[in-house]
Design a protein that fits this description.
The complex is a heterodimer of chains A (139) and B (287).
Chain A (H helix, E strand, L loop, with lengths): L4 E7 L3 E14 L2 E5 L6 E14 L5 E13 L2 E6 L2 E3 L5 H16 L4 H27 L1
Helix pairs in contact in A: 1-2
Chain B lengths: L3 H55 L17 E7 L9 H18 L3 E7 L1 H9 L3 E6 L8 H16 L5 E9 L5 E9 L16 E3 L2 H75 L1
Parallel strand pairs in B: 1-2, 1-4, 2-3
Antiparallel strand pairs in B: 4-5
Helix pairs in contact in B: 1-5, 4-5
Classes of the chains: A alpha+beta (139), B alpha/beta (287).
Chain lengths: 139, 287
């Protein structure tokens, strides 16, 4: 029997994915991690980026998360995302626009507070665009 | 024709009331559907959050977050009470206040003082009249509450806990069972305890990336926020369902009342006609 584990990807607004998979990739704080069944328990924060799951039967799916928390138990992986959406849902134009806006805001940094916010926005937009690009290459 | 005119105006006023309650019922019904969808959509997040937290509480890690530690000497407790902004929703708020008050009475009997944080106008009004020290209030969240509105109020309570002003934090809200039933519920937020997972009943710990403290801090913040947010979203769904039911029974009552008044009115009208006829007949006989 192939080894599998259960994955739940949830965001504050709704449940994104729930199912049995053989492998998960997630953008952890220290770099992308690939998770196989029977991984040691681990907690990590997530960066904005792409989460990919390889279901037991079926094609690889990818989702976009803009940060959150990853919990790994040997047979359960839980991704508590701040916002998650299907990668193909991301509107490239909207992402580019957000990036431009964030860069403009960074140029005239009114205060540290605004600067930090703008930087976070920029990182998020860049990660979104990156995910889109990867998706496009596959096609 | 005694009282016929008064009865007619009474019927008219009941009919007007019925029109309003009918309209409110329909508005509540349509809002209810959306509110329930929203509640269902955000439920998995709150549930998963709770299960991750209960795993964490079982882990043997070197850093114990203050929200996971049980303080033995309880001098003051905090309550976050979630109510509706508007009334006319049956016994929804009253039942919840009753549950909250009886819970608080238990603490007061033990000589423990209480700090309150109210979300929703009704709770604010009720607890400012009732004894209780309100430290934070949030009102007018509307039908689509957003997390940003709640963070401030919740932070007041968390700061109070961090500073040792309160030793426990509870969340009182309505739990949505189904459209007909909503039940008041008291949840202990801090110290956070989850149901014990038997499978994990051995000595183990997580690996933490990048470091223990920031992760657990971030997780705790999100946990509290998600629980309060879920409470508020659920409360909106409860409010709409309760209002729909209350308005439906008000409309039905109005129909019954109108029917009764109509009978009384007809009787009065017939009596007046009979009297008139008998007067005419009597007058004709006299001639």
């Amino acid at each position: 029997m192939a080894m599998t584990m259960h994955v739940n990807i949830v965001s504050a607004e709704n449940e994104i994915y729930s199912g049995t998979v053989t492998q998960v990739f997630a953008p952890a704080e220290m770099g992308e991690v690939g998770i196989m069944p029977r991984h040691a328990p681990m907690l990590s924060t997530l960066k904005a980026g792409e989460v990919r799951v390889v279901p037991q039967d079926g094609e690889e799916q990818s989702f976009f998360v803009s940060g959150g928390i990853l919990e790994i138990q040997p047979h359960i992986v839980t991704i508590l995302s701040d916002t998650a959406m299907r990668a193909s849902d991301i509107d490239e134009a909207a992402a580019q626009e957000a990036k431009a806006r964030a860069e403009a805001a960074m140029k005239d940094k009114a205060s540290d507070m605004d600067y930090a916010k703008a930087k976070a926005e920029l990182l998020e937009a860049v990660a979104q665009i990156e995910t889109l690009r990867k998706l496009r290459k596959k096609k | 024709m005694s009282g016929a005119k008064e009865i007619r105006s009474k019927i008219k006023s009941v009919q007007n009331t019925q029109k309003i309650t009918k309209a409110m019922e329909m508005v509540a019904a349509s809002k209810m559907r959306r509110a329930q969808e929203r509640m269902r959509a955000s439920r998995p997040y709150a549930e998963k959050m709770r299960s991750v937290l209960s795993h964490l509480a079982q882990a043997h890690c070197e850093y114990k977050h203050p929200y996971l530690q049980d303080r033995e000497d309880v001098k003051r407790v905090g309550y976050i009470v979630i109510s509706t902004d508007r009334g006319l929703c049956g016994g929804l708020n009253t039942n919840m206040f009753k549950a909250a008050v009886s819970e608080m009475a238990d603490w007061q009997a033990k000589g423990v003082e209480i700090d309150l944080c109210t979300i929703g106008k009704k709770a604010g009004v009720f607890f400012s009249r009732f004894s209780g020290n309100i430290v934070a209030r949030a009102e007018g969240l509307g039908d689509q509450p957003s997390n940003e509105h709640l963070i401030g109020t919740v932070k007041v309570m968390l700061d109070a806990y961090d500073n040792g002003e309160i030793d426990r934090l509870f969340l009182v809200s309505n739990l949505f069972v189904n459209t007909m039933t909503q039940s008041p519920n008291v949840l202990q937020l801090i110290p956070a305890t989850g149901e014990v997972d038997k499978e994990l009943d051995h000595h183990w710990d997580y690996m933490y990336e990048p470091d223990t403290k920031p992760i657990i801090d971030a997780l705790m913040m999100r946990f509290i926020e998600s629980q309060v947010y879920q409470g508020v979203v659920e409360n909106v769904a409860c409010e709409m369902s309760a209002r729909m039911i209350a308005m439906k029974s008000a409309t039905d009552n109005a129909s019954d009342l109108i029917k009764e008044l109509q009978t009384v009115y007809n009787k009065a009208r017939q009596a007046a006609i009979t009297q008139e006829i008998s007067e005419i007949v009597a007058g004709a006989a006299a001639v």
